[in-house]
Amino acid sequence: RVHCRIRPLLPFDTAAGHSISQDRQRNFSEKVAYAADDETVLVKCSRPGHASINKTFQFERVYNASESQDTVFADVAPLLTSLLDGYNVCIMAYGQTGSGKTYTMLGPQLEENFAFSTEDESELGIIPRATQEVFRLISEKPPGSYWVEVSVVEVYNNEIFDLLAKDSCGKVFGVKRDVVTTREGKSDVPLLTYETVENASEFLHLVNKGLQLRVRHPTLVHAHSSRSHLVVTLTITTIVSGDNFGTSWEGEQTSQRLNKEVSCTFPQKMRDNKSTSSSRASSPAQLEATEKLKQVKTRLQLVDLAGSECVG
User: Fold this and answer.
1) What pairs with residue 159 in β-bridges?
2) Helix, coil or strand: residue 50
């Protein structure tokens, strides 16, 4: 699915920092692009000495400049339900520098440290909203049947940096990681840091730490332009009993999503969870002996791409 969002004129759109009259703003926005309807973008192309040409582009959804963050997320939220049904989900923002990618994905950012602000919930972007929705959905499931891990990666100059890696003193700093090819032919980053989180607040705290390490350089159109790709991954591990697995996880893709049977891979937090152990054996080994369990991992990848100045 490809959606297009048109942003309004912002202060850095003015030439040399001078103000532009309302009439000129209106004409300028109409000359660039506007939403003809919910699925069509109309661009007015004009060059000196040439007749103006109208070009239209079709998308599955078009958001005009006045539509809110709530409206954008409303179209994203249904994808998160399928995440808990065993499907991987990826949401990414692509566009040129200053087009509003980071605002759409994260929300407004604080000038002093580039972390995103959570003061005005109506301005929150897809990443914080999606996280809150995922944990809300998980809260409706049986306790102890899910656990969540997060990783934050920066891709800069074709190199991968782990933004959650810590030094010997426990301080977060970006560490370059190598990409390897597995025996199955898939790309993997084996040394990537994954932090277990229990709620949206813990998740957002880690993401904000990673954001402070992200590479930024000023450009002519954006003083705080991010020059790297940001990939935030939420990995959800689901424990499904063998009896329920056949009915709950049907379809051809079941075998592709299924990992090996659980032995002693439970995080400490799940092993200590009384709600899980009260009705079953107290240790993972005993648990495995009394009932076969399946471990299913799904990933939600939230990507804020670097500004792309290549349009042709």
Assistant:
1) 156
2) coil
Residue 125 near residue 107 (C-beta atoms within 8 A): yes
Residue 49: partners with Cβ closer than 8 Å, 6 or more residues away: none
Q: What whole-number distance in Å separates Cα of residue 25 and Cα of residue 13?
A: 10
Q: Which two tokens stand for residue 280?
A: 């079953």
Contact between 175 and 168 under an 8 Å Cβ cutoff? The reply is: no
Residues of the chain with CATH 3.40.850.10: 68-312
| pLDDT tens readout for residues 19-61 | 445 554 444 444 578 888 999 999 888 777 888 888 999 999 9
Residue type, 164: L
The closest alpha carbon to 55, from 46, 40, 42, belongs to 42
DSSP 8-state class, residue 202: H
User: Residue 3 burial by CB count (10 A; 0-12/13-18/19+): exposed, middle or buried?
Assistant: middle
List the binding residues for ATP.
Answer: 95-102
Bridge partners, 148 (sequence order): 197, 236
CATH topology of domain 68-312: Kinesin (3.40.850)
Give the residue ranges of the annotated binding site.
Answer: 95-102
Tokens of 217: 């350089």
The rounded distance, in Å, linking the Cα atoms of 203 and 108 is 18
- DSSP class of 219: -
What are the Cα distances from residue 132, in Å, to 121, 127, 227?
12, 9, 27
pTM of the model: 0.74
Tell me the pLDDT of the chain averaged across its residues: 76
Using CA atoms, how far apart are residues 39 and 119, in angstroms rounded to an integer? 32
